[in-house]
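Example 9 (inverse folding). The structure is encoded as follows.
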């Protein structure tokens, strides 16, 4: 038996705001949605494949101190793609951690940008190489730990 991640479902507080964020930052396409009160959701795809579902079923901000999702990571082919995401994040005023592209750890070639969605859900977009010329935010902990 072999497992791989299918789509990811996130609870959000404002479906319209989250749809705008994820379509703009990631280029996802809204493939289906419900506008029915109490049952609002959206299916986001990339190249026809379901990647993310958004469910308007929560209130408040993402609680990092509670059990559950730590962060959601997306990998892209190269650092140029990470730079494009970073540019959009800065344009829309998203919360960035580590102030831009950094390696995953001291001496690593892989790295990316670490940020939050409108509800404070922690996200990462990274590439397998190209970030090694930058200093890591912490020399004794992985960057994706959001320490």
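The amino acid assigned to each position is listed next.
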């Amino acid at each position: 038996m072999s497992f791989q991640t299918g789509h990811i479902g996130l609870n959000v507080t404002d479906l319209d705001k989250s749809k705008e964020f994820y379509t703009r930052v990631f280029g996802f396409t809204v493939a289906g949605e419900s506008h029915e009160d109490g049952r609002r959701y959206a299916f986001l795809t990339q190249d026809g494949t379901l990647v993310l579902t958004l469910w308007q079923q929560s209130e408040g901000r993402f609680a990092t101190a509670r059990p559950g999702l730590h962060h959601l990571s997306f990998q892209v082919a190269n650092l140029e793609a990470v730079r494009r995401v970073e540019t959009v994040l800065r344009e829309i005023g998203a919360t960035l951690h580590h102030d831009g592209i950094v390696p995953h750890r001291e001496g690593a070639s892989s790295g990316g940008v670490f940020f939050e969605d409108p509800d404070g859900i922690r996200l990462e977009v990274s590439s397998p190489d190209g970030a090694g010329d930058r200093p890591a935010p912490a020399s004794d902990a992985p960057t994706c730990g959001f320490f």
